[in-house]
Design goal:
heterodimer; A: mainly beta; 11-stranded antiparallel β-sheet; 3 helices
Chain lengths: 186, 184
């Protein structure tokens, strides 16, 4: 899974940040907690998985459940201030963070630290390079922390939120198709 | 007895086609997913589940491998059938010699006019703890999956065609070009 063939932008040709983007970001800032149901595709050099995912993100933690196509639950990840637990049909695993835990148990590392922001269609903390916006001021290409992230489609659920999210890094590709968003805003 | 009932189903239905509705209930019994599609099976070991609404997903068992294709994710996941046998209810339905080796069968009595058989995978690594097959005589009408998180998947079959003429390449899966294929 190579990184995106993105042409290198020299400094002066930096994309100009549309005003609509500022408005879009302020709008997203009202989002407190969110939930989403969708399908996730995981792809590494040697292994892969695709199934349904239900994710509830609160500012004090995350609950993510994974399901087979037949609806049977495969695992549940619970992350909060004092660490992360992954429960599968056989065992329970624990580690300090989701990145380490998923790498140890599933062989691929879920970037949970940045994922909530990336899922909403915005950069997470730290420096990021926004490569392209769409005409409505929403991000279509973003590069951050070794991830090339693309947002081919959006949907409106009171907020402009991504429907399809493609995250590519050197070792892992993640694809998310969101069927339903549940947003709790101030 | 349950083994006989399942065998009667296998013998009387070398092939089957039906529409299905899959309803997933969480541990509190709330519906969390409803998906519809069509299924076909051809003994031994061949099956095809076309999920159509609300999203498209295709699962094909070609007798050797199980192919899972999600067009929106543009991803195909391939697994070997016999390794997956203990965790694939579709493979249980398609029935092959190994089935009885992979499952313990138990009579689960009569309920809403169906005779139920419970199949528990012998290997405990599967994604479900038990499958209940509901028969009307020797015809399968309903299937229920229980996973280890307390969730239940109910699959109801309708418009059931017994021994339809099925096109053999229904059970052959060729990944479309440009799609990520992963797994054995």
């Amino acid at each position: 899974c190579s990184a995106l063939p993105v042409q290198q932008k020299s400094a002066e040709q930096k994309p100009v940040e549309p005003v609509a983007y500022r408005v879009h970001l302020e709008h997203l800032a009202a989002i407190e907690n969110f939930g989403l149901e969708g399908r996730i595709g995981v792809l590494t050099e040697t292994k892969g998985f695709s199934g349904t995912m239900r994710w509830h993100h609160r500012n004090d933690g995350d609950t993510i459940a994974f399901y087979s196509p037949l609806g049977t639950q495969l695992g549940e990840l619970e992350a909060d201030a004092n660490g992360v637990t992954l429960t599968t049909s056989q065992k329970t695993y624990h580690a300090a963070d989701a990145e380490t835990l998923t790498q140890q148990t599933l062989g691929w590392s879920l970037p949970l630290r940045g994922l909530p922001d990336w899922a909403l269609g915005r950069p997470t903390k730290g420096d990021a390079e926004i490569l392209a916006w769409d005409t409505a001021g929403r991000i279509s290409k973003l590069r951050q922390q070794g991830w090339d992230i693309e947002y081919p489609t959006y949907q409106n659920q009171g907020f402009e939120l991504p429907t399809k999210i493609v995250l590519k890094s050197r070792k892992l590709d993640l694809k998310l198709v969101v069927e339903n968003w549940h947003v709790e805003s101030q | 007895d349950p083994v006989e009932r399942l065998k009667a189903f296998y013998q009387s239905t070398p092939a089957m086609k039906a529409v299905f509705k899959q309803t997933v209930l969480d541990r509190k019994g709330q519906t969390v997913q409803e998906v519809m599609g069509t299924m076909q099976l051809l003994r031994p070991g061949k099956f095809r589940w076309d999920y159509q609404k609300p999203y498209v997903q295709i699962i094909v068992g070609d007798g050797k491998k199980i192919w899972l294709f999600d067009p929106e994710l543009s991803q195909v996941t391939v697994r070997s059938l016999e390794k997956m046998l203990g965790s694939s209810p579709a493979a249980l339905l398609a029935g092959s010699k190994e089935v009885e080796k992979a499952f313990d069968l138990k009579d689960a009595g009569r309920q809403d006019e169906l005779e139920w058989v419970e199949a528990t995978p012998k290997q405990k690594d599967g994604s479900f703890e038990s499958v209940l097959l509901g028969f009307k005589g020797d015809q399968l009408a309903e299937m229920e999956l229980h996973d280890s998180f307390g969730q239940t998947t109910i699959i109801e079959f309708a418009k059931i065609e017994r021994n339809p003429k099925l096109n053999p390449n229904t059970f052959v899966f060729v990944p479309p070009r440009g799609v990520d294929v992963v797994g054995e």
